[in-house]
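Hey, resending since the last one bounced:
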Amino acid sequence: MSTNRRTEAEVQGFTASPEFAANLQRVLVDLVELHLQGKQAHWNVVGTNFRDLHLQLDELVDFAREGSDTIAERMRALDAVPDGRSDTVAATTSLPEFPAYERSTGDVVDLITVRISAAVDTIRGVHDAVDAEDPTTADVLHQLIDGLEKLAWLIRSENRKV
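The structure tokens again:
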């Protein structure tokens, strides 16, 4: 009788390559930094339309925090080790530094949308290499890009003049 059963030795789980893990680490630190910068903006935004922007920034913070958790847990599922320590994030993020002190709503819109774009650029920059190794993880990246670009559009619209 023929069987398709494999032996236990023939069953191999997927393990992230060092390059794959490094690509996800880049995404992780940028999402952690985006979360932190979004909170900095949220606490210090002042001016016209304050409340709406204040609440939008919380939406961004929640999305970035949840996204960083998804990426870190995906890394662990594939036997990679995420590093979200503050020293690591500060030393390796690609996001521009967020300025201190109070900022007007108009300035915060411009500042935070640039940082969202920087995070999206990182995700797009690693996408093809991630997709070549693991299309399932590339699907996670697609969801992050879609969500971040939507949030950038909603926030950027606060300053749009027609």
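The CA atoms of residues 63 and 147 lie 8 Å apart.

Sorry for the duplicate.
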